[in-house]
Specification:
Structural class: mainly beta
Radius of gyration: 19 Å
Shape: globular
Low-confidence stretches: 3-24, 26-39
Strand content: 35-45%
Helix content: under 10%
Distance between the termini: 30 Å
Number of helices: 3
Mean pLDDT: 84
Number of strands: 17
């Protein structure tokens, strides 16, 4: 579990979560978990799980062959998420609920990355997701040394077998805006999913990349123009969905609640 997951478990209520998720899953609990508020509306423990996926698996695959690229790992370092309450998004300083930081994790590994937090039934107009640079000392076993001082590391292979790595030190705070002005979170509709769309992020011309020692590295030092294009794709590759069945994957007919801009 990531360092954020451990912090979230302290703040939340322990319970088993079926399956593994790549995405943000927000799960409400029953009245037995409620502490109540001054207004009488019961609070509940919510869970945030994070996932990477591909909206075009035939073009960019996650552990599967594809026409442009096959992704084997998607390492991210994520800071505290902020949910802005409805009606406050137009303010210079919106009213926000902070969620524990997830930290470092490989979102293409099938590992369930999550944090937990307590919240009252509310409506929200936006979500902010900050990326931070990974520390010099690995925080968990298996973290690649190349991730040091970077926020994102995507690795995989092209159809001809050429290995590629994308290394970004960018630290944006991605701002997701509610599709209908706001979305609700309550004990009966608290299951939600944030996705990182690798097909959108890797909408790159790999044929134009300079190769070194038989591989492609897209970083500040090598292929910087492709890195700038990758970083410009980040916001459009992140979205928030309702997760009706709570399985941490997109529903067959997904309901998008908020999108990056």
């Amino acid at each position: 579990m990531t360092r954020g997951g451990a912090l979230g478990m302290i703040a939340g209520v322990f319970r088993a979560v079926p399956g593994f998720a790549l995405g943000i899953l927000i799960c409400g609990f029953g009245p037995g978990c409620s502490s109540g508020t001054e207004t009488g509306n019961p609070s509940f423990t919510a869970e945030l799980s994070y996932t990477a996926y591909s909206s075009a698996p035939a073009i960019v695959g996650v552990h599967t062959a594809a026409s442009r690229a096959r992704v084997e790992s998607a390492w991210l370092d994520l800071d505290r998420v902020a949910l802005s309450t409805a009606g406050s998004c137009a303010l210079a300083a919106p009213t926000q609920i902070k969620v524990p930081a997830l930290g470092v994790g490989d979102h293409a590994s099938g590992v369930h990355h999550f944090t937990r937090f307590e919240v009252d039934p509310s409506a929200f107009c936006a979500l902010d997701l900050p990326f931070v640079q990974a520390p010099g000392t690995p925080v968990e076993s298996g973290e690649p040394p190349s991730l040091e001082q970077h926020s994102i590391m995507i690795a995989g292979a092209l159809p001809d077998g050429t290995p590629f790595t994308v290394l970004s030190a960018a630290t944006p705070t991605l701002h997701l805006v509610a599709e209908q002005g706001s979305f609700e979170m309550g004990m009966n509709n608290a299951q939600m999913l944030i996705t990182f769309d690798l097909a959108a992020w890797l909408d790159l011309d790999f044929d134009s990349a300079t190769r070194s020692a038989g591989e492609i590295v897209i970083s500040a030092d090598q292929n910087p123009l492709l890195l700038a294009e990758f970083e410009s794709n980040l916001a459009r590759g992140v979205a928030l969905y309702r997760d009706r069945d709570g399985d941490g994957t997109l529903d067959v007919s997904p309901e998008r609640l908020a999108h990056g801009q």
